[in-house]
UniProtKB/TrEMBL annotation:
Name of protein: Ptchd3 protein
Source organism per UniProt: Symbiodinium natans
Keyword annotations from UniProtKB, A to Z: Membrane, Transmembrane, Transmembrane helix
One Pfam family here: Sterol-sensing
Top-level taxon of origin: Eukaryota
Family from the record: Belongs to the patched family.
SSD domain span: 310-472
GO CC, alphabetical: membrane
PANTHER family found in the cross-reference section: PATCHED-RELATED (PTHR10796), PATCHED-RELATED, ISOFORM A (PTHR10796:SF92)
InterPro entries referenced in this protein's UniProt entry, alphabetically: HMGCR/SNAP/NPC1-like_SSD, Patched_domain-protein, SSD
Membrane-traversing stretches: 51-73, 311-331, 343-365, 371-395, 416-437, 449-472, 719-736, 742-763, 770-794, 814-836, 843-870
Amino acid sequence: MDETPISSVSPSRSRSNRALQIERTLSVASTVVGHAQDKLFSRLARVIARLPILCIVLSLAVYLACVPGMALLNGSENMFGFIKIMTGFLEAFSFTATDEYQDYKRGTDVFPDTRSLVFIAKPLGGRSLVSSEVLRQIHRAEVQIHDTTRFESVDRHQLGFSDVCERLSSGSPCMAGSVIATLLGDDVAVRLSELEVLEQNVSTPANAAAALVVAAMSVQQRATLPLLVASPLPFPGLGASELSLSQWLSASTAAMSTFTVMDTDDGVLFEKQAARDINGNGYPENALVRINQFSSSTIAMESVQIGMDNVPLIGLTLCLMAGYVVLMLGTDTRIPGNSQVKLLVGASCIPGLSGMASFGVLGYMGQGVSILGTLVPFLGLAVGVDIIFLLVSSVNSVGPHVKDMEEVMVRALPRAGAAATTTTLTSVSAFLIAAVTSTDLPSFFSFNVGLVMVLLLNWMGMLIMFPAMIILSQRNMTARPEPEGGFATKARFVMGGGRKLRGVMNARLGRAVERNLPFQICGASVWLVLTILGIHFGLQTGRGMPDTYFVTDSSKVHAYLEDVSSSFVGSVPMELNLLFDEPKVLKASYRNRMSDLIAALNNRSDLALPVDCWLHRAVGSLSSSASMCEVDTAILTYLNDTTTGSISARDARGGITDHLQAARCRVVLWQPSDADKRSEQAQDIFRQVKGEFPEVNAVPYHLSFPTQTARYRVIKDKTFSTAGFAFIGVFVAVIITMPVHLAFLAVGNVMAVTCVLFGFMWACNITCNVISYSVCVMAIGFCVDYSCHIVHFAHHGVPPGTPWDKRMRHSLEAVSFDVMQGCSTAFLGVAMLGFGTAQAFRIFALLSVVITLVGGFFALVGLPCLLALLSRIARACMGSETPEDETSAPALPATDACDEGEAAKQYLQDMENPLDVELSAEHFSM
């Protein structure tokens, strides 16, 4: 007998058996977990019913104990005077694991970082930049910053720009890149008078003023011209004739001055005060020239302002949420004739308390909150209120015939508690995985940890504090007659809309999904088409984020960036730092390679000024046979030169030769404004410096590399990888509480929603950035709840072998209303961000609304229709398609529109099918 077929089939059968065994094991495990939850919540319900006041007091004590931790939050700026937030792009929005970040930290650890204030001056009314009146206004602004601005230091002294420099060291790096000093030299008053006299002569040629300025300029002044003055004409070069330079200067459209100080507390205070003085003295509105400033603290102060602007929106969101809950559930009580408005308003405050407490927990953990963290309370409200609907529905399902409130809570809490635990667990898993995989992005890490804390604290309050409030509210509740007129009748009619909507949805939506073929085709087609289009176009989503996303709409930063963009067309000057770490200047080979590197950098097409490298000037020309003494002498001579003595403090660390620890050189390049080209330039610099000259051990660094180019380079990959890990985490969390095939369905539906989100981003030209990165992970945490509800109740209590179209009907009859409420509250939770004062939060709101609507539609219509249609097709292919019968549920009686809600409710109460009775009893036993 030939054994080949048996041997060839056995491995396949073995793998199938193992997969089946794993699935059965996981199903048994989920059943065990479900029973354990029932016992836990039953015991908890008895404790709450017997000691409701104590439970409320203890819950409030936990929240209040967390709040003081807000004072311990790490940050660089104060919001409302006591909450610190992270505002720097380096500390908040830079990926710390990138080479660019490590290089920047390496360079600034040796040579401390600096802060700068920049202002751009743009003549108005067709005036020339070199006219005396324009230059006089620019000079006034420079004097304001350099000499007039005073601030109170950390030790209560009145200081200015020169004081900040002197307090640091005699060789301080405080510098001023003055347009006036470049154009007019040191004798400003005399030169301005000469220009005024020249302008009074009406017969003077148009470029006479520029020619006068150029004629008196030194070579060093001319060298800095292209860095401080913007002109539409290409710079003719240092060796150009005076006529060429004067023509270039005559066509100039704007000028830029810079003031640089050390990154110290006094430096920060000076910078902020100088910025206030520029804006406060009316320079931006000057009739002759518009002067807009930008400093290292600008984005920080904008972040603080945005955070403060978000607080009223949080309060408004809380009010809207409470109003919506009251509207839907105000009269939906277990005992007819009663209302529960005060109870629901109090319960709506629990997510708000959780949001505040989560900040405190982050403070106790030693974490900080960025501007992204101010979104946490909104999202806490968006997902936290859902449990109110679950618990109210579970309590009402017990019915008025049970008089003992302890018994009511013992029956209700396990149902609502299990459902709330499952949804909280899946969301926590998504955000926790996102936090673990994003530890290299501090702001996003704290954002996810904050969301985890909000969800856990809200889960505690909703399953301990809120049931205790229900006990106190319903303990002495008795049946009351409905009011027959007046305001009470109108109010109860409005608040009864939730019950009517529940009845209509439970009766109609499931029936359409099960029996209506056109509805099945439309729902499944929309699911498939949107998912496929999302996958196709989502992969083409761009990346990058303008800095203005985190700037308020009314900020003068917009005018500054607009002037820079229109003046320095396509690129801006960038001073690239080049760190020579432990330079081996005694070796001739090292000196030769250093010379080759400097020559290569000087040949770059984007070079703005020749490389300024004191170390190369000191030892680059030494012969290959130079002795240690000759090298020492060359370095000491250069460092001790009175004209270059500040180099020892600014750009040199350590002693000489073998003791020289580090040297810094400077390369001024034109940095493209376009994010893609800027990233390409940075990669080319790294390739040239590190790749072609590794033996020199030079490190190029600039603040824009970790804060812009590195983030631009990795953000898209990080978005996809973090979402992938979050899917895995959610899947693991789901299989704990439900069978494997249902977990696949739930997670697959969420993946489809995420694909649609990426496609929508492409269609609206929204790129992968810090904001969309957050929303993508949030989409997984939000939408998994909807899908879990639907697939769970398609299985729970349903006999094996039941077709999927009938399963979907029973599931929708059980939870469609509550899933819809989850979508509605999520929508309300984020909708107010659409009225935020910064573009980033409006984009966040838009994307959040998209995932809420798409996630709800896919859960309530798309996936059910797809499964019902596949079930119909399968029966047709097997030849078992039968005419539609009435075995799944009795027909809904025909009613008019006015009585539809009550008819639907009566229909659900009159169901005789044992399966339906079981589903009704297990309404929220997930």
